[in-house]
Amino acid sequence: MWFLKRGWQLRLLQFIAVLGSLWMLFLLSQLKTGRSAAYILRYQWLEYTDDDESPEKVCNCSAILLGEEEEIQQSKLLSISKDFQKSTQIPDEYYINATKDCSKFKTSRKYITFPLSEEEEDFPLAYSMVVHHKVHSFERLLRAIYAPQNIYCVHVDKKSPASVFIAINAITSCFPNVFMVSKAVNVVYAGWTRVQADLNCMADLYNTSTTWKYFINLCGQDFPLKTNLEIVKALRSLKGGNSMESEEMPQGKKGRVTNVHEVVDGQMQRTGKTKDPAPFNLPILSGNAYIVVNRGYVRSVLEDKRIQALIEWAKDTYSPDEFLWATIQRIPGVPGSTWPNRKFDMTDMNAIARMVKWHWHEGSEDSLQAVYPECKGHHVRSICVYGAGDLQWLIEQHHLFANKFDADRDLIAIYCLEKYLRHKALIELV
Ligand SMILES: *[C@@H]1O[C@H](CO)[C@@H](O)[C@H](O)[C@H]1NC(C)=O
Ligand SMILES: *[C@@H]1O[C@H](CO)[C@@H](O)[C@H](O)[C@H]1NC(C)=O
Ligand SMILES: *[C@@H]1O[C@H](CO)[C@@H](O)[C@H](O)[C@H]1NC(C)=O
What we know:
The protein is α/β, with parallel strands linked by helices. Helix content is 41%, strand content 13%.
């Protein structure tokens, strides 16, 4: 630039630089619209849209998730109308028939059959699903958590009606990574077999695949609050730790482990005998049935001699599912565990495994006792079965899953949640 004075040379250079950055901006914007065009072509059909032939579509889920009272009241009226319930139920026979053509079934039910991201592909999960009825609820749950890199073991209660077993078996046979447990048991409420069902799935999952990183157990009335990617991110941030309720056992529950129990006519009863203390003087902690644990924890459950002894000891206690996992979580040397010291106690609200709303903990925000807002659905055995009005609060929580949902009683809560999660999972792609 010998022909220009020094100041002009500088200005020319600046001009070229500005042109260059404008060009870059233009290229970037092209790339973006190119991407969203690709999104519309490749993924948009996987959204649950209002074009779908679902009767639930009359509800405005955006308004429900924003907590708009009028829409929530309307959805409540709709939920309890007999016509609506009749038209939204998917009978067991549908699943038995529709799964004869698996690829059609997966397409029409909009299953996601490819990993949505590398991060998820590199972090497979293992699920144990213990169910006994309501095939429709089960299938919506499976559809919400299904990803081809994960692995799913389904335990159907041995005493379930044949149609439930046949329909669920038919659904699982459509997926290479979903299988029925090798040994099903008869699950007794508050009895040992509830734990045995999960143990059988743990063993099968551990045997079937060596690559999964975390184990999550579910029942048929759970539903996710997060996308698979969000679950993977939350688990990675645990840095190998496990997450579950594990605290000092309240005085009122101690009788569960100091008395010998037996099953009489399908119910747990005390025999009048007193139990010996737990093996190795292990401190028994209180928790719940639902956990999020790494692969090493599951290996310990299957192989550690101390835990084998604890399992044998726990078989005649009351509701062992509500202390066994919590106790193992505090045994020194178990991968992802914490020390037994009380300072490591964790409540269900601080753990990410499960959000359950108990009736007696509900109340208004300004109350000093309340743990969560009042249930907007109804209660079953003092547990909230969520209604559409609970969603706005639920999706703000850090828990990966919530319990209970019921597709027969409040389908709109499930419908709006699944729609919200699917949309979120797909927009995470772009
Ligand atoms: C649904 O509710 C949202 C939020 O209030 C509103 O913006 C939207 O227009 C509503 N959609 C329909 C179809 O009514
Ligand atoms: C059974 O499934 C086939 C194919 O998926 C479908 O064409 C047919 O209508 C179904 N029959 C009934 C009775 O649902
Ligand atoms: C599966 O695990 C069980 C118990 O942990 C073990 O006894 C069995 O040999 C394993 N089976 C296979 C096929 O690896």
